[in-house]
Design brief:
The structure holds two protein chains of two kinds. By secondary structure, chain A is an alpha/beta fold. Chain A folds into two domains: 3-157, no CATH class; 165-272, no CATH class. The longest helix of chain A has 16 residues, at 3-18. A five-stranded mixed sheet of chain A has the order 2-1-3-4-5. Chain A contains twelve helices and five strands. In chain B, helix 1 (23-32) packs across helix 4. By secondary structure, chain B is an alpha/beta fold. Chain B has a single domain, classed as Rossmann fold. The mean pLDDT of chain B is 92. A four-stranded parallel sheet of chain B has the order 2-1-3-4, sandwiched between helices. Classes of the chains: A alpha/beta, B alpha/beta. The interface between A and B is large, with 43 and 37 residues.
Chain lengths: 299, 145
């Protein structure tokens, strides 16, 4: 059992015994060694189910939306990306800060689940793509912190510039090549909406894709409807995407959804100034306000 | 008819989202002044260019238009004070996103046309129609029925 797992179990037990929260949301070991699904612990004797390993990918903050009408408090473990997701939902007033106890965990970057499944247990596994692109590995907001607080500042100082080379590679193609590329990707989409369901930027009470009577999107699974879904979702999360990469991980068809989201993040940075979602909860969203000196291309 | 075939006597079909207060008045002025412009445009009057949801644009392409123009008041002139500033942000992004997924930049455009700019309306519409006529029918994002 790792040091961190031990710490997690201790603090979870403490919180439950003291009654600080009614439920602790963490990760546990499930059917496969390369998956660590979420665990909802509400009894102190169950805390030994909690684990921290290289596959604790699930963004637990999103589950707080389901507990919106729950009266008691919930404690939740947060990595860097989870804490940004928490800020994001807080900014949208989806959750109440006082109903949540956050336990921060410094994240060293997790391993790629798909590769793990493919290569087997005793192989040298690569990091997940979302973790390679990660700019905020440590939680930005927490009540308890299960790591070395001094190391936290060091990491913050060494933040690397974002890498958009994969987006640039697509931008370099001709329009027809780009269209073929995306058609090929989204023709695989089965519209299970897993990407939407895990997304911490998607918190509408009724999603546009569920409004079947309004008829924004047809039931038919064809290129055109899938492209409508892809573009609409990309525009809806524009300026709100925290780049946690959960959509891409949850996608059963391996569609590179983050390539769309990263493009929007890149353009927002270029057009309206640097903006990282889920950092500052007081600030306005890039598409929720304007500047009179925005670039002018429509004269 | 399949969208893959080039129809005979094809004429471009262009959807213009015109804001009620400026561009629609501009189009009206163009008409009153007897300025000739191609009949390929379909004007859809909206209260403000800020009303134009990106979904409208994608849906228009799905249902077979060859080009979309979103037009509204010049920045600073919005009847609702700031609607077009939001439009500007939204469509700067949307335009880049559409190009990123392979839509030709000519097919989706945004312009500011005021109520007194009848000649500008004529000129913009003529230019877009000619560009799209040269490119041929749009096949991207099309609903193939």
């Amino acid at each position: 059992m790792s040091e961190m797992t031990k710490k997690m179990q201790e603090i979870a037990r403490e919180i439950l015994v003291k009654g600080e929260a009614e439920v602790v949301i963490g990760w546990e070991k499930g059917t496969f060694w390369y998956l660590s699904p979420p665990a909802f612990i509400d009894k102190p004797e169950d805390v030994q189910r909690l684990v921290w390993d290289d596959f604790c990918h699930n963004n637990l903050s999103k589950y707080l939306v389901d507990l919106k009408n729950h009266e008691g408090k919930a404690a939740v473990f947060v990595k860097g990306c989870d804490s940004r997701a928490f800020n994001r939902l807080l900014q949208d007033k989806q959750i109440a800060r006082e109903k949540v106890v956050l336990i921060g965990i410094p994240c060293p970057g997790l391993l790629d689940q798909d590769k793990a499944k493919e290569l087997g247990k005793n192989s040298d596994l690569p990091k997940a793509q979302k973790c390679l692109d990660c700019q905020y590995p440590n939680p930005l907001v927490y009540d308890y912190y299960l790591g070395d607080k001094e190391a936290l500042n060091e990491v913050a100082a060494t933040k690397e510039a974002a890498d958009y080379s994969d987006v640039a590679a697509i931008e370099a193609m001709s329009p027809d090549e780009r269209y073929d590329f995306w058609t090929k990707q989204y023709d695989r989409c089965i519209r299970c909406y897993a990407c939407r369901n895990v997304c911490p930027a998607c918190s509408c009470r009724e999603c546009v894709f569920d409004q079947t009577r309004v008829g924004w999107i047809g039931k038919a699974n064809n290129s055109s409807e899938n492209q409508f879904f892809a573009l609409t979702r990309a525009m809806h999360v524009a300026g709100r995407c925290i780049e946690c990469g959960e959509c891409e991980r949850a996608c059963p068809m391996d569609i590179p959804i983050m390539l769309l989201n990263k493009k929007l993040v890149k353009d927002i940075n270029e057009l309206f100034g640097e903006y990282d979602a889920g950092i500052d909860i007081e600030g306005k969203l890039p598409l929720g306000h304007f500047d009179k000196n925005d670039p002018e291309e429509f004269m | 008819m399949s969208v893959k075939e080039m129809p005979q006597n094809w004429e471009p079909k262009i959807l213009v989202f015109a804001c009620n207060w400026c561009t629609y008045a501009g189009a009206d002025l163009a008409g009153l002044s007897r300025l000739q412009y191609p009949p390929n445009i379909r004007i859809l009057r909206v209260p403000c260019s800020g009303r134009v949801n990106p979904q409208f644009v994608i849906r228009a392409f799905q249902r077979g238009v060859d080009g979309v123009l979103v037009a509204g008041c010049h920045p600073g002139d919005c009847h609702y004070v700031s609607g077009n500033y939001f439009t500007r942000r939204r469509y700067l992004l949307m335009q880049r996103l559409l190009q990123y997924v392979g839509v030709d930049p000519e097919r989706f455009q945004a312009r500011w046309i005021s109520g007194s700019e009848g000649p500008k309306f004529q000129q913009v519409v003529t230019q877009i129609t000619e560009e799209i006529r040269a490119m041929g029918p749009n096949r991207k994002l099309r609903d193939a029925q």
